[in-house]
Design brief:
213 residues, alpha/beta, Rossmann fold, six-stranded mixed beta sheet, globular
Length: 213
Amino acid sequence: MRNLRSRIHLCRHGEVDSSWATRIYGGKDVPLAPEGVERFRRLAKELRGRVFSLLVASDLQRARVGAELIGAELGMEPRLEPRLREIDRGRWAGMEREALEPGAFEAYLADPYGYRGHGGESHADLEARIVPVLEELAEEFPGGEVFVVCHGQVQRVAAAWVLKLRNRDSMRFTHSHGGITTLDRYADGHWQVQALNAPSLREGDWGGRVSKP
């Protein structure tokens, strides 16, 4: 039986400002809506009493502000990690989906790991950027739990990497605002998806305890 050595919780940021609600934003630094701030105030209270080895956030403000609200409740200072930014959507950033060239979005959905037609990142590029961070956090905090406030595509690609699902089927994953995807890393280097888009992080939601080295 494998020894569970590290647990990483990836939490998507809250709702963004209404002026961006129907636009593609990707790696642009867009602000949270009031309801996005309120969502993380509630989440911070739910996490009261939990002990994490580290609180991490993408340096984009929609993730950073959420992590700061959690940190204020837990007495922790978030570590900002630019490599956990949302995927770069290239020239699509700021556009309504209906304004894209005909067939472009369909081409992306058909091959998310290869598509770079917008001049930004593919899912393969995003995987190459975020996986080293996950491995580093697992190595830095053996026997610990790390809470990360990040982005929907970061969660999607991280889960798909663990499941070796690097194709169009990965687009079936849903990542809600405030949803939590939990990844476990074992002593032998094996990773497992423990939870996907969970609405909360209640004690006892998942089997297995993190083993100290």
